UniProtKB/TrEMBL annotation:
Listed GO biological process terms: RNA modification
Species whose genome carries this gene: Salvia miltiorrhiza (Chinese sage)
Entry keywords, A to Z: Repeat
Record has Repeat as a keyword: yes
Protein name: Pentatricopeptide repeat protein
Amino acid sequence: MLTQIKIQGAQNFKTISQFLHHCSQTKNLRIVQEFYAHVIRAELFFISPNLQTDLVLTYTSCIGKNNHKILTHLLKSLNLRNPLPFNSIVSHFSQHGSDCYALHTFSFMHRNSVYVDSYALCTSLKSASCLKKDVFGKLMHAYVEKSGWFASVFVGSALVDFYAKLWSMSDAAMVFDEIPEKNTVCANALLSGYAEAKMWGEGIELVRRMHLLRLETDNFTLSAALRACSGLCAVELGKEAHASVVRRIIDVGADVFLQSLLIEMYGKCGLVNSAKKVFSMAGYVVGKRRRDVVLWTSMLGVYGRTGDYSEVIRLFRDMLMEGIRPDGVAFLTVISACSHTGQVDLGMEYFESMTRDYGLNASREHYSCLVDLLCRAGELERAWRIVSELPHTADCTISMWGTLLSACNECGNVSLGKLAAQKAFELEPTNVGIYVLLSNMYARNGMWDEIEQLRELMKRRGLKKDIAWSSIDR
């Protein structure tokens, strides 16, 4: 194909594009270098900006992600001045995980006086946030203020998002305040940062401020407001947000995400009946009922948090009868409910069904819940076998062995308790909690010599039990 391109010259760009795509897939650097030399000699790169972009992207796909010298040489040799190919290059790098190359290309543009527009700035800021390059981002911030791009709400929003993703919320708020013409996008970027940082109060204040600034609230704004109300357990504010959802969102019953947030908000505020009402009315789309698994899982979580385990099991059965495929979270909730109600066989049945019938992989959380189920029922040997036979040793957690050790203490199974403690020490030799559990088991069974030996072991390892304390206000 390369020979055909050399004969045809620049007449068939379709053939060239197919050739470069093939080289990108096969990572054939030698052929790309040969074609690159032909492009330089024949001066083909002047003819099409698309060819310039494709050549750079194909070349860099063949040299790995950290070869900045070759990328600089490539960009210099092509003598690019049009910002459009650069925008495409930066965007491609950012979208395909080559954020270092995206930032390097932006730096090249700046050093070589290539015009930098809002698109290149926003994309590069996104790459800087992905790499947690706070210094680079702050340099870009300085460039934005110096070059006058701060007047662009898109660039301002990208800066807010950059600082928010670095959890520098004071800087994000400062940038938001300085944006001359604010819109919903930049406000939502700040809201997202507050939500990730669990700064619920600041999130609520921002939503109120949006009303004063006469900024439109969209689904994301209302979702962030509901999350903040859940975090603060602010039921009155939550009801206000609910009213806004109903008033502003057309066909709100079809928005699964908002409905699930409403259910969770009422559940965390202790208003189970309100959560049930939302759940019962959710999922109506043009007269048809379609309750997504997310809604069911949210309602299961409400019952689980309030300790109504029988309702968890009943609702899970209703879910199966409606033909909804449960996800891993739904199974975790129902197995936990079986654990608290002592229904060992049913919990084991759900666990096995999860992997057998629904093809879901059991996570550490599922195994921990299963161990808790068996230990609560006194089936310690069975719990021991399950933890010992986990597919991967890394899946065993200290909490699993701690649960088994605690159950052995309650049931008086000292021999199995010592084995569980030994396994726990193999994972975390300095975990003081395991020493305390083992010491409690020895004390309960009058094994004072073993307690003394355990204390000596803790001294040798430089460990000591944390002493609890309390204070009384006078």
